[in-house]
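ingest -> validate -> predict -> emit
validate: passed (alphabet ok, no gaps, 681 aa)
predict: started
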Amino acid sequence: MKVSEFNEIFGTDADEDLIGTVRRDKIYGYGGNDRLYGKDGDDILYGGTGNDRLDGGTGADVMYGQAGDDVYRVDNLADVVSETTVPGVDDGGVDTVESTITYALPMFIEKLTLKGTEAINGTGNELANRLTGNDAANVLSGGAGNDVLNGNGGDDVLIGGAGKDELWGGSGSDTFVFRFPDATSTDKVKDFSAADSDRIGIYASDYGLSLGHGLIDDGTGKLVLDPAYFVAVAGSASTVQGTSSGHGQFVFSFTSSTLTLMWDPDGAGAVRGTALATFNSGVTLSAADFTVTTGLPTASANGSPSPVPERAGAKVAFTIDLSAPANEDVLITYSTIDGTAKAGSDFVGVSHGQVTIPAGSTSATILIDVLADDLPETVESFSLQLEAAVGTSSGAPLLVASSSAVGSIAPPAPNVVAITDMAALGSTDPSGIAYVPGQGLFVSDSEVEESPFFRTTNLWTLQPDGTVVASSSLLSFTDEPTGLAFDSSTGRLYISDDDQSRIFWVDPANPSVMLGEFDTLSLGVIDPEDVAVNPNNGHLFIANGTGNSSGGGPLGNAIIETDSTGTQVFATIRLPAEIKDPEALAYDASQDLFYVGGGFSSKIWVVDRGGAIVQVIDVLGGYRNEINNGAASIKDLELAPSSDPNDDPSKLNLFVADYGQSHVSDGRMIEIDLHGGLLLA
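emit:
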């Protein structure tokens, strides 16, 4: 049975916790107030109706909250959050994103809360947003709408943007930024504190200020507000005005109940001032409380820290970051540059692409589509080149601090592509597996003749897709065929028996007749769980388990290399302690490496001749047995041609004999696609 790329998990109309696996999951909450956790993999989550929490976990996840007040957890630049089942139509509810990365709210999401301890930034959308910082230094930019911004701890920058916004700096030295005067966008500053060294932030160009015209040098080369351009006047904002003649002024009007900062464009002239913000009681302001930005920020390109797996739909994420928010949109032009990864075969190249960083924001994300070629490859990389960064209103170019960033693509990780129900074919506890060219996969069973089954057939011949070709009995010489291996040079099918401590061999065309044998005790192998063949010289590798009463004897958990008759030991490969009971063994002659497993774990270890672990394949944990929810119990491994008729005939996948629970009819054969690049990642 072919295995879907996704593991599907379905909720009900009740309130539920729906938890994903190490695989790629699709989780459907349906009704109720559900909590959906994708865990590992690039998952797709559907909240359904109700107030749901969606957390994709690691990976680039796609999350649809649907109806209700939903909460999303974002931790990856390629995460996608959507509140629109029908394009352009809000699914409803008041929804929240909790993010551990710099993030801009997409359509129809009302709230953003920054999590973690990193100095990250948040940007709102056109709605009335509530943006909440963490305890680091954040830039919060509301955009349009009547927003509420709360910096919490840290030295934050709060930019309300268009609309009547409510600004809370929290603890730390915070800067409240006011753009060009707009009577429809008077903000409320709720906790300005001189004790915290809070500041008023302005952009010189918004108010027509320059050196000698509202700005002076403070003696260090820094331009600050000229005190003549600020005045505090008693009275209400509707009646007071500036006192200067010939230029504008910031006017701080105060009464017993209201404190208002205004910009009066002509000072004592006839034009009235425009209120920028009202302030909490007890505040006094002066020109020294202003911080003035006189130029554009610098721009830099940044790449993702980790390789993205090669698969259709995957994306390599880059960011273009500004050193500070600008008071105008910034247009970014970029292109991809080939490295070891090539446009057209490894990724979709971009030439002179453009993205805009909105005024008040500090970052834009660029996603480059990955192409899957399924060829044996190492981790490959390419670059994103920042070609230009220009203010869209001023036309002024930004300085570029870092013009290039590197992204990388990893070979696809091993994944399960097919599972055969061996129990349905008569093998309750499959223990051995070997591939014989021209005949198929041979699978042995070490328990099927015992209670409660009492069957005489304990060897099956299958096509890689699970179709039964033949079956036979080995009971005339073994009722414990724990491992199988085939030597194409001699035509021998080797069979290990851990009860008798022997290795037998047969002709696979007539496997019921034993042709030869040798005892493994003389080799120090007390528990011969499995056997493998080196096709280059006919040597045998025997896995010595530790599961019997001897604990594996003096040899312990190890692999012995011997000749085809067990008369000479060429090498002893001692395995790490974590491979405590090696029961499954396959040999890859092309790389001189071993695949090792055992019923004690669902992991498969790739080991070199020195016994060092080269890689761990940990994909079976997400494929528990449907009969009893038991974990995979690995008893043998074999490299054999893929069962997919569309694959190249030379492509080898890793087949697993899954024993399941002893004396329970739940055996399986599992096929793992190694994607040809297992050890090159």
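The chain is about 0% helix and 40% strand.
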